Amino acid sequence: MKPRDIPAVISQGRGDLRFVLASASPRRLELLKQADLAPLRIVAPEIDETPKRGELPRAYAMRMAAAKAEIIAKQETAVFVLAADTVVAVGRRILPKASTAEDVARCLRLLSGRRHQVMTAIALAVPHQKPRTRIVTTRVAFKVLTAAEIEAYCAAGEGLGKAGGYAVQGRAEAFVRFINGSYSNVVGLPLYETIALLKGSE
Question: Exposure check for the chain: N or C terminus, fewer CB within 10 A?
Answer without folding.
Answer: C
